[in-house]
């Protein structure tokens, strides 16, 4: 038993110096976004999903036809990319998803009510967990 202790300590030290887990790096969707404020925390509008959408990765949210979505920011479209908005689902029947913020294609929703203009251009940021 006492021989295992130094081995465990050695493995822990090596693990701290050389992390085994690296983050997954994904392409940025856009360099800028439109918001109502500098931190993109205020609701811009309320949108209704016209079609279902299944999220392709953790940056996106699933939406169902008819679902209401609070919109917080709109990515500024670049080149041939699709236009995405960031928001969270709304409504009692979607309670388990409420508060989850993610992107969804703007082409699949219609704005129902505009609360305030998205007139602040804010740069998007990438949080690197660890550089490769």
From TrEMBL:
Cross-referenced Pfam families: SH3_2
PROSITE patterns, A to Z: SH3
Keywords associated with the record: SH3 domain, Signal
Signal peptide (from-to): 1-23
InterPro entries on file: OTOR, Otoraplin_SH3, SH3-like_dom_sf, SH3_domain
SH3 domain ranges (all copies): 42-114
GO biological process, one term: cartilage condensation
Top-level taxon of origin: Eukaryota
Name this polypeptide is given: OTOR protein
Organism: Bucorvus abyssinicus (Northern ground-hornbill)
Taxon lineage: Eukaryota, Metazoa, Chordata, Craniata, Vertebrata
Gene: Otor
